[in-house]
């Protein structure tokens, strides 16, 4: 028979466990302190880098995107506040605030044409036209960052992906799976017909018409009854290059 350990043995075992626990806590604390020290060093180096390349960060889109990537890796968000070190040093907060205002203006001006759904590419084209006199170029990455900050206002701005396109939604329209599939189909030529959707998606005519009618009511589609073969064409300005080129000229 195995003998049970005595009281002395149990005490020694408990003391050993406490020592191991304390050792583990000390090692964990040491690692945490080292990580904090490393992050502080990285932040200091990042601040120095920002001071040195301030003009490049503001004026060069590619450089600005790389800077944001560096910030994200060490948990720094230069856009978290319009006040403080980063805003004062770079004026980045002002840059994105101004861009956000211009995004709202473009979305409002084009809403009657596209129903509040505009492709990210078209939005950027409009912004570049508006900012021709500025030396600070704008990229899709800049637009995405500015739009992410607009969410704080509860303004309904959202970026959605349909097929290969990113679309900016500025109205609280809820698109279901049927609507998304039709918009994805329309990306090829900018429009669809009832017959085409029926054939490609194997839907009933009732399902197609119901989805298209909703898109028309929401202002996301325009109907063309004057086609030579007598078919109705449902145009979608938010994915049509034809409407994009017209919009950028106005």
TrEMBL record:
Pfam families membership: EAP30
GO process terms (BP): multivesicular body sorting pathway; protein transport
Keywords: Protein transport, Transport
Gene Ontology cellular-component annotations: ESCRT II complex
Chain segments annotated as transmembrane: none
InterPro entries tied to this protein: ESCRT-2_cplx_Snf8 (IPR016689), Snf8/Vps36 (IPR040608), WH-like_DNA-bd_sf (IPR036388), WH_DNA-bd_sf (IPR036390)
Domain of life: Eukaryota
Family: Belongs to the SNF8 family.
PANTHER family with a match to the protein in the record: EAP30 SUBUNIT OF ELL COMPLEX (PTHR12806), VACUOLAR-SORTING PROTEIN SNF8 (PTHR12806:SF0)
Known role: Component of the endosomal sorting complex required for transport II (ESCRT-II), which is required for multivesicular body (MVB) formation and sorting of endosomal cargo proteins into MVBs.
Subunit structure, interactors included: Component of the endosomal sorting complex required for transport II (ESCRT-II).
Protein name (database record): Vacuolar protein sorting-associated protein
Organism: Cardamine amara subsp. amara
Source lineage: Eukaryota, Viridiplantae, Streptophyta, Embryophyta, Tracheophyta
């Amino acid at each position: 028979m195995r003998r049970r350990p005595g009281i002395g043995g149990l005490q020694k075992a408990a003391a050993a466990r406490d020592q191991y626990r304390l050792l583990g806590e000390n090692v964990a604390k040491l690692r945490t302190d080292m990580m904090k020290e490393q992050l502080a060093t990285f932040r200091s180096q990042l601040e120095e880098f920002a001071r040195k390349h301030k003009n490049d960060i503001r004026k060069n889109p590619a450089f600005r995107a790389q800077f944001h990537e560096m910030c994200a890796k060490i948990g720094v968000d230069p856009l978290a506040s319009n006040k403080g070190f980063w805003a004062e040093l770079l004026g980045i907060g002002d840059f994105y605030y101004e861009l956000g205002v211009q995004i709202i203006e473009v979305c409002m001006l084009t809403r009657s044409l596209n129903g509040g759904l505009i492709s990210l590419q078209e939005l950027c084209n409009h912004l570049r036209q508006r900012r021709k006199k500025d030396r600070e170029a704008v990229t899709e990455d800049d637009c995405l960052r500015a739009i992410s900050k607009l969410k704080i206002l509860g303004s309904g701005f959202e970026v959605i992906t349909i097929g290969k396109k990113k679309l900016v939604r500025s109205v609280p329209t809820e698109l279901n799976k049927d609507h998304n599939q039709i918009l994805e189909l329309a990306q090829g030529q900018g429009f669809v017909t009832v017959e085409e959707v029926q054939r490609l998606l194997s839907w009933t005519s009732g399902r197609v018409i119901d989805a298209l009618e909703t898109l028309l009511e929401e202002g996301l589609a325009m109907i063309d009854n004057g086609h030579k073969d007598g078919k109705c064409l449902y145009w979608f300005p938010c994915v049509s290059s034809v409407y994009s080129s017209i919009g950028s000229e106005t």
